[in-house]
Amino acid sequence: MSGKSDQRNPGTPLDLDWVDAVQVNRSAVERRCSSLTKRRSIKKAWQAAWLLKAIRCMDLTTLSSDDTPDRVRRLCSKALRPLKQELTNDLGITSLNLTVGAVCVYHALVETAAKALEGSNIPVAAVSTGFPHGLSPLPRRIEEIRDSVSAGALEIDIVITRAHVFSGNWEALYQEIKSFREACGDSHLKTILGTGELGSLRNVAKASLVCMMAGADFIKTSTGKEPQNATLPVSLVMLRMIRDYHQKTGHKVGFKPAGGIRTAKQALEWQILMNEELGREWLEPELFRFGASGLLTDIERQLEHFVTGRYSAAYRQPMG
Predict the structure, then answer these.
(1) Cα angle vertex 296, ends 159, 304, to 5°?
(2) Picking from 31-35, 114-118, 189-193, which range would have the lowest pLDDT averaged per residue?
(3) Number of compact structural domains in the chain
(4) Active-site residue, selected from the candidate residues 53, 206, 252, 256
(5) Residue 78: inside a domain, yes or no?
(6) Is residue 275 part of a domain?
(7) Residue 173: domain span
(8) Fewer Cβ close by (within 10 Å): the C or N end of the chain?
C-alpha cells in the first residue's frame, strides 16, 4: 500500500552527545540551495515525467474549518483520478493508474475519507495531537491518535511540543514522540516540527534528529498554518539529518515539506533537492511526500501545456 513500508524506522536510544554535536552553517546551506536551483533545469518530456512523479508523492489535503463530508468525498475522487481522462489519454499514461500518495484530513473526517477510498491503494492521513499548535494535554493527544487509527487512518501527522526545543529538553521531546509512535501501532508516524517557529536552523536539525531517534517514520516541515512554512534551506538541513541518521543507523526516514508549495516549479525544486541529497530512492511516496492543497492544479496546467502548447485557466482543473 502506498505510504506503507516493510522497513520502518524502529528508532534508537536517545544519544544526547550526538544531538549536542549538531552544527549548521547557514551561509553554506543557503549557497547550496541557490546553486541547486540555478544549475538544474528539467524541460519538456523530462519535466512532464517529474511532475507525474510529484503527483504520486502528494498528500492531497483539506484542513479548513468549513470542511464537510461532501468536500472530502470530492477530494477523494480527485485523489483517485488526479488528472482529467482526456489529459491522461493524451499523455499516454492510462496504464499507470496514477493516484496521489495520500489524502490528509482532520480526525472528524477520517472515516468519510477511508470509506471513499476503500479498495484503493491510497491511505488516509489524519492530522492529530492538537493540530496545529500541539498544546492539548498529552493523554488527550495520545487518545486522539488512537481514535484516528481506529477510524481508518494509516498515517498520523502529529505536532511536536515546540517548547521542548526552545528549552533544549530533548529527553521530553524524545519521550513524547515515542508515546505517539506507540499509539500509532501499525500506522505511520509523521512528525511536524513547525520549522518556521523553531528560531534557528540548528534547532531544526536537533529536533529532526531527536524525532528520528524516537521512531518517526517521516519528518515534516510545517503545519501549513505558520507565518513561514517549507523553505529550501530548512528542507536541506532536515535532509542532511536524515542522511546522517541513515548512515549511522541504517534506518530510512521519509521527508514531507508542507505549506506554501503551490507551483509545479516549486515541486521540481524539491524533487531536485531530494535527488541530489538523498538519491533516487527518496523520490518515491514511501519516503517523500508533498503536503499540498493547491499544487495539483498548477501541475495539471503545466501538463496540459506540455500536450497542447497552451495554458488553461485554473478553474478547468477543479479539485473534485
Answers:
(1) 165
(2) 31-35
(3) 1
(4) 256
(5) no
(6) yes
(7) 16-42+105-290
(8) N
The domain spanning residue 184 has which CATH number?
3.20.20.70
Q: Which of 157, 190, 206, 298 is catalytic?
A: 157
H/E segment holding residue 176: helix 170-184
Give CA–CA dist 273/42, Å, rounded: 13
- DSSP reduced 3-state for 56: helix
Residue of 53, 78, 206, 220 marked active site: 220
- Please spell the DSSP secondary structure of 61-105, one letter per residue: E---TT--HHHHHHHHHHHHS-S-HHHHHHHT-GGG----SEEEE
Query: The pTM is what?
Result: 0.93
Question: Is 4 considered catalytic here?
Answer: no
Residue 299 inside a domain? The answer is: no
Whether 157 is a known active-site residue: answer yes
pLDDT in tens, 160-199: 999 999 999 999 999 999 999 999 999 999 999 999 999 9
Q: Tell me what the pLDDT averaged over the chain comes to.
A: 93
For residue range 45-62, list pLDDT tens digits in order.
999 999 999 999 999 999
Residue 234 placed within a domain: yes
